[in-house]
Design goal:
The complex is a heterodimer of chains A (121) and B (114). With 121 residues, chain A is mainly β. Chain A is 0% helix and 50% strand. In chain A, strands 2, 4, 5, 6, 9, 12 and 13 form a seven-stranded mixed β-sheet that branches. In chain A, strands 1-3-8-7 form a four-stranded antiparallel β-sheet, with no helix packed on it. Chain A starts with a strand and ends with a strand. With 114 residues, chain B is mostly beta strands. Helix content of chain B is 0%, strand content 60%. In chain B, a hairpin with a 6-residue loop joins β4 and β5. Chain B starts with a strand and ends with a strand. The mean pLDDT of chain B is 91. Classes of the chains: A mainly beta (121), B mainly beta (114). Chains A and B meet through β5, β9, β11 and β12 of A and β4, β5 and β10 of B.
Chain lengths: 121, 114
């Protein structure tokens, strides 16, 4: 069964440095997401991406964050100047969505990768 | 404020026993409710998705219920196995029109002992 793959599995970075987390969504999926999970806390939505642009983002996703789909397969999350509080597990997810009339169907399962553990020193 | 609350926080049961996990939500507008299983160190895996009009949905030994009037959902696990040990996360999708953001509960950590 196709999977969402994320690299690296663990990233250690000095505070203030830029970091890029990489994801390869399932090939025929159209919607892509980033989430984060701080150790011991609940998963939090960061951003959704569709048709080469951000469709929604949370208040966590500030100017330090950006997403990109540089080619037909990769989906990246960049943190421009990392802070200690950015240490977390970052999950990428994708879904195959479709339209039903004017509304985007939201009953498709999201497929998650196994995450990148980001440690900021 | 949109919130998803789960109970209990953690649960220990013996292999072969049944259990039920609870989820209460205050999310508006409601789009759908999902249950995920998250093994330690892994990403969440979708178990069920229920829309407003669905009361129950099964996936093998997992059965989810939804009461949209009381804004409650439950996940029932039948004949538990050691591999059921994981966190079970209730997620409510909010919004309309677009593909909306998901609001996660904190999860119930289930441990199945032999």
């Amino acid at each position: 069964e196709p999977e969402v793959t994320q690299t690296p599995s663990h990233q250690v970075t000095q505070m203030g440095q830029e970091v890029i987390l990489r994801c390869v969504p399932i090939s025929n999926h159209l919607y892509f997401y980033w989430y984060r999970q701080i150790l011991g806390q609940k998963v939090e939505f960061l951003v959704s991406f569709y048709n080469n642009e951000i469709s929604e983002k949370s208040e966590i996703f500030d100017d330090q964050f950006s997403v990109e789909r540089p080619d037909g397969s990769n989906f990246t999350l960049k943190i421009r100047s990392t802070k200690l509080e950015d240490s977390a597990m970052y999950f990428c997810a994708s879904t195959r969505s479709g339209f039903s009339g004017q509304r985007l169907r939201s009953d498709q399962p999201q497929h998650f990768g196994d995450g990148t553990r980001l440690s900021i020193l | 404020k949109n919130q998803v609350e789960q109970s209990p926080q953690s649960l220990i049961i013996l292999e072969g026993k049944n259990c039920t996990l609870q989820c209460n939500y205050t999310v508006s507008p409601f789009s759908n409710l999902r249950w995920y299983k998250q093994d330690t160190g892994r990403g969440p895996v979708s178990l069920t998705i229920m829309t407003f009009s669905e009361n129950t949905k099964s996936n093998g030994r997992y059965t989810a219920t939804l009461d949209a009037d009381t804004k409650q959902s439950s996940l029932h696990i039948t004949a538990s196995q050691l591999s059921d040990s994981a966190s079970y996360i209730c997620v409510v999708t909010s919004g309309e029109g677009g593909y909306n953001k998901l609001i996660f509960g904190a999860g119930t950590r289930l441990a199945v002992h032999p």
